[in-house]
């Protein structure tokens, strides 16, 4: 799906402005590191930027879209552009070597050469070190663009040689708007957009039947917990465990539970704008009335601890039962 | 676009350009060959982005009609499939017609193929070449120059610029230098027609490919150097290669100007002796042989590997002047150098056991080989 420049500008106004200004004033860095989550338009803006760099007659910080270079880039045949992505688990040293030897030859046609490395955090140590020297001192007019969604996993020495461009996350409210535009109900949109800001992934999640069931099970658990702990333990056996079988499911269940308690705390604090479960607002209000902030804080802590223990492969049945008891006592 | 062509001539042209087409390329359109058809003839282009080969099939050759063009135009066709189709067509007359949307029909006898073509506008544009900036060399000489230098290029990518051969045109002379920082090969050639100075680093792989394509004849090959590419032009074939970026190190200072020991010896005999000595050295990783002067008429080539055994061989030398010498070096480097000098009498000049030494032909000094010795205790 080819989006327009305006769409990028709406998504990442600061980034777009910065890149364009650098381009117009001819003060481009030799390497950029684009950092942001998958839904933040990383790939799209990088594509736009590459096209801008290659375009023969850019107008006002926009590629013309019409010249030979633009057309070659769009059809994926531009000889002065190379893209790299992980081959399996990692970006391997041979890929880096091949890239460097390609970039070290004079361009097929005149002008700037550009390379793009997707998921730059997946370079292993030898690949990163192999790239370093070239990244630092390219022979001529070469621009590097590295993309990552896990900045901390990119080697420090690579980071320090690039200009860091941070992509902000799509605001919660904007993500909800985008999803409701696609026919997702408002309450569902609020929930899924907490889990992922990537509009497409969120839309898939919203239409997933199992996810809908998970959501209602979590809400029910909170309600049951509020009335009777014995019933909550029964509920775990009858509804919770059959639904959240795998480890990933269990983790998601705990996430959803955490968001529910966060909602309760927000309601108590009078912040009703950004609820994960806006349809449950009245129920949350009632629960909030019965709890102090200290108690809520303990309960949130209990859920976070449970999440940690899940990561350590604790028996999931015992883990959930302990959590339910903790939430009750608190 | 529509034309008829003789199959065998088209096949010849295709087999030339197919040498440049690689199946694994990062740019999808380069898996194809480009055909440009005009009333004068067809030009075929194949490329793997490093090298590009273009060949021209004229409409008429030796008074025979090869090509009949009804309508000119351009198309890019999948090289592998297209080549196979043309090879297996039943008759020698081929009719090719391209409709809108690059639908290609190939007819010959009673068989008809439909191929889906690609947009020729997506094909990278070859650089414009100014005709003036060129010099010409006979093809066989060019092949010799390549053979004598290209083996010495570096195979490691740590210094990419060393994977190429440095071609420098200066003072009416072409100087080609290749080095991998352990040895160096230099070849000088006088040029008839040249005024300007040029310098380029041509990737070793490109030169190897060029060597395969050129025929062993005295036909002139025109060489044009531009900032982006170098072009070799023989009769109907154009060979483009991209260049390596970066400054080639200054190698003139590496070559010692004086010497302490000079040995003149038959190249072929020495080559065979080293080859024999390396039989025992080969097991060890660095393949080292020892070279000792023995009085003033004899040299000794020896090798010793404790686990296998040892070899010694005496060789009559034409002349030995200067100090006594014991030196060790890589047998492979020495053999490569001797092969490049090609069997003539060889003059070897040493400046001590720890300093690089040079080899040149006793007959002319257009070719020079430099090797770094190996330290042994």
Task: Kindly summarize this structure in a few lines.
The complex is a heterodimer of chains A (330) and B (377). Chain A is an alpha/beta fold and 330 residues long.
SSE arrangement:
The complex is a heterodimer of chains A (330) and B (377).
Chain A: H1 5-11, H2 13-24, E1 31-35, H3 42-54, H4 68-74, E2 81-84, H5 93-103, E3 113-117, H6 125-136, E4 142-148, H7 156-159, E5 163-166, H8 172-181, H9 186-195, H10 199-206, H11 209-227, H12 229-243, H13 247-269, H14 281-290, H15 293-311, H16 316-329
Parallel strand pairs in A: 1-4, 1-5, 2-3, 3-4
Helix pairs in contact in A: 1-2, 5-6, 8-9, 9-10, 11-12, 11-13, 12-16, 13-14, 13-15, 15-16
Chain B: E1 2-6, H1 7-18, E2 32-38, E3 41-47, E4 51-58, E5 60-61, E6 64-65, E7 67-71, E8 73-78, H2 79-88, E9 93-98, E10 103-108, E11 111-116, E12 134-138, H3 139-149, E13 164-170, E14 173-179, E15 183-190, E16 198-203, H4 204-213, E17 220-225, E18 229-233, E19 237-242, E20 261-266, H5 267-281, E21 288-294, E22 298-305, E23 309-316, E24 319-322, E25 326-330, H6 331-341, E26 345-350, E27 357-361, E28 367-371
Antiparallel strand pairs in B: 1-7, 1-9, 2-3, 2-8, 3-4, 4-19, 5-6, 9-10, 10-11, 12-17, 13-14, 13-16, 14-15, 15-28, 17-18, 18-19, 20-24, 20-26, 21-22, 21-25, 22-23, 26-27, 27-28
Helix pairs in contact in B: 1-2, 3-4, 5-6
